[in-house]
Amino acid sequence: MKTGITFSLIIVSLLLCQVSLAQEPCSEKKVSVNLDEIIDDVYNIFQSQYPFDNERDNMLPGFETWQTEKDWQNAVHDYLFNFLQESNPSVNFISKGGDDCDYSFTYSFSIIAVDYVDTSISVVRTKTGYHARAKLATNNACGENRQIDIYFGKDLDLFQAIKNMIAQFGPIDRVLDNYEKEHLSPPRGPKILSTFKDRNYVSPLEDERKIEINLEVRNCKNEIVFEKSHGHQVELLHNTDRSELENNRKAGAAFTIKPGNPLIIGIAKPKTASIFYKLKKGIKPEIEEIEISTCGRDRKETKTIKININGLDIQVKPKKTEVQSSEKTSIDIYFNTVSPNGNKRPVVGKQLTLSVKGIVDGSVSPSKTVATDSEGKATLQYKAGEQDKQITIVASYYPKDYPESVQGKAVVKVSPSKSDAILTMTSRHLNEMTLDRDETIGNDHYIRKSNYQYDRKGTITLQLKKHSVIDQPMLPELWVYYMSESRGFDNWDIKYFDHRDELRESKSGGFNQKIREDAQISDVKLRTPDVPMMVIVAYDKKSKKAKRVMVQASFDIGYKMSIQKSTETESWLGEKTETNSNDESRTKNDSYFFQVAGEPVKDPAINKEFPSGCLVSGGDGKTTFTGFGKTEEIKPVKNNKYYDEERDLKTFEWSLIVNEKK
Questions:
Q1: Are the C-beta atoms of 186 and 380 separated by less than 8 Å?
Q2: Beta strand pairing status for 123-138 and 103-118?
Q3: Pairing state between β 30-38 and 92-95
Q4: Could you give phi then psi for residue 571, rounded to 5 degrees?
């Protein structure tokens, strides 16, 4: 139920509703006036009734001279047309009009016996006179030809017979108004209104393959158009290249007139009808345009509905595309739906089928199937064998009861170990802001929900050459110095979105706005100069185990963001609703630095603090060392109506593999 709204919002809604009430004016009714038939005797009798007169005192306007029968017919037509127009000045009659008219007025003349009173002797006599007949019928764009009225007039005088006949119709504008009120179909000024019931997209996923589209046909007076017996017809394609459409019989507003291609449904009740759109094939994203047409009294109307078909995409991304023998690396798999404009949405909880080729003495885990997590991601672990040369990983998904599948693949090359050690570092910086507020202030009800996320993550690998070993005489530590020989920017994952929903409502009206910002990331580069960098591993002299790793360098990652913003607004006052939408885009360049994250931890042996991210926390203690650090801050956001809480998360994880043979 919609309740409560502020005074200022009511004013806005009133203005918007005034716009929505400003309907396109109804088209003018056009009536063609045409001759149906005149029998030859009519012309002959008229000649005898008005004989040639040299003095021209027996002639009528338009009949000053004797004419051919064709000229005479034209003169009679002009007389009838002018009298018809004078009798009905508000109706637009078209002389000898065609199919562009909404109605037709067709007339015919014949002879008939007419009783009259001979006043000289007060006797009723019979004489041959004129019989005028006219039919008022529909003549619209739908090809409908339905009789509305038919009337007759007779008299010894042709012109009086015409007047008598026209008088029988009464005010024709009123006749047509009443007819259109009683017969809403076909409508004047037809409009097709369509809305998506739940969502405006489909995808090959089983639960996203079908959507419902609500349909209404309205006339220029904004009345719902229907026809109880045969239904007001709406036509669309039953089958397209990628889909099929069908009438939703359960909606109860329309029935299927023709189930083939095209599909024709008849709206038989004064309520919203609906159709189902079902995706049948295809994996790639696309916007499919569906044409829906109907006809009216004054024109045919066609509406194009755009269906967003989201495709499926699997990306297999090894943390490192080249490894050395005995080196470990992870392989991330991302499963997303992809909209036609490139926006991605994670596919959660789906089982992917794996195929791994090229394994000799290495290992991949898992190797058969893997499920995506809440971010549409799955991760494999690969340890390169001494005899592995190159492995190919293929991840596939087969939608249930669908003719096509999607797959992604990647290659990891393996080379003999040449470096003394390999250091892999992954840094992440996540910034989130949220708002979830539902409150009533006075008579106004407010619901605000916002979700902002900017997530940056990257992995860098350094190939290290052992430089020196120095015994620290003042510390219980032995430091091993390495210098980088090469580096690789192996993997990145950068996400940005800003989604805001705001609803304000009252008993009389309300306002709803949805704002969506999503970014596509491109041109990702490591901007730090490629120069030798120092890495120090500190060992405890007593236990002979590594304690921490210190990198004497910082790394800057730059990239380009293409941000798409869409805004949808809806305002209402009573039953009147106004909707608006807007799309815009912008680009910006941004960057982030690798940071050694983690709360400071004091080493009592040397009485100094180090970030926990640089401390050794895992590995075998001989050739493999790993570490992880995390800092997180959650705090309120002040003076911001869109967000009330902010989360700032930084993580840093690393692994160091020492080549035993070296």
A1: no
A2: antiparallel
A3: parallel
A4: -130, 150
* DSSP run (H or E) holding 10: helix 7-21
- Joined together, the tokens standing for residue 513 give 């706005």
Confidence of residue 18 (pLDDT cuts 50, 70, 90): very low
Distance CA 583, CA 564 (A): 7
Transcribe 214-248 into DSSP letters.
EEEEE-TT-PBP--TTT-EEEEE-SB-SSEEEEE-
Strand segments, DSSP code E, in 506-554 are 509-526, 534-540, 546-552
Is the predicted pLDDT of residue 64 greater than 60, yes or no? Answer: no
Coil, helix or strand at residue 260: coil
> Which pLDDT does position 52 carry in this prediction?
53
**Under 8 Å between Cβ of 125 and 133:** no
**Is 510 buried (19+), middle (13-18) or exposed (0-12) by CB count in 10 A?**
buried
In angstroms, the CA 95 to CA 73 distance is 13
The yes-or-no verdict on residue 144 having pLDDT over 80 is no
d(CA 92, CA 488): 80
* C-alpha torsion angle, residues 17, 184, 303, 230 (rounded to 10): 140
Residues contacting 661, CB < 8 A, separation 6+: 417
Per-residue confidence (pLDDT) for residue 312, from 0 to 100: 97
**Rounded CA separation 376/314 (Å):** 10
- Tell me how far apart the terminal alpha carbons of the chain are, to the nearest angstrom: 74
| 546 exposure class (CB count in 10 Å sphere: 0-12, 13-18, 19+) | buried
d(CA 633, CA 73): 95
Token pair 């004091």 is found at: 602
Residue 566 has pLDDT above 50, yes or no: yes
For strands 210-218 and 273-279, give the pairing: antiparallel
Tokens representing residue 531 in the block: 């120069």
Torsion of CA 473, 478, 479, 482, to 10 degrees: 140
8 A C-beta contact, residue 496 and residue 518: yes
Mean pLDDT of 293-305: 93
112 within 8 A of 93, measured Cβ to Cβ = no
Q: Is the pTM of this model over 0.85?
A: no
How big is the CA angle at 512 (ends 506 and 514), to the nearest 5 degrees? 160
Sorting pLDDT into bands at 50, 70 and 90, what band is 124?
confident
Give the per-residue pLDDT at 9.
33
Q: Where are the alpha helices (DSSP H) in 123-169?
A: 158-169
As given in the structure block, the two tokens for residue 259 are: 């189930």
Per residue in 501-547, pLDDT tens? 999 998 888 999 999 999 999 999 999 888 899 999 999 999 889 99
DSSP H/E element including 75: helix 69-87
Question: CA 157, CA 79: separation in Å to the nearest integer?
Answer: 13
Model confidence band, residue 490 (pLDDT cutoffs 50, 70, 90): low
Take residue 249 and report the two structure tokens written for it: 């019989």
The pairing of strands 311-318 and 328-338 is antiparallel
The pair of structure tokens assigned to 216 is 């209404």
Q: What are phi and psi of 2, to 5 degrees?
A: -95, 120
pLDDT for 20: 38
Q: Is 100 helix (H, G, I), strand (E, B) or coil?
A: coil
CA 164 remoteness from chain centre: 60
Q: How far apart are CA 271 and CA 248, in angstroms?
A: 13
CA 382-383-388 angle, 5° bins: 105
Query: b/e string for 197-231 if b means 16 or more Cβ within 10 A?
Result: eeeebbbbbeebbebebbbbbbbbeeebbbbeeeb
Query: Phi first, then psi: what are they for 270, rounded to 5°?
Result: -80, 55
Mean per-residue pLDDT of the chain = 88
Among candidate residues 355, 362, 357, the one with its CA nearest the CA of residue 384: 362
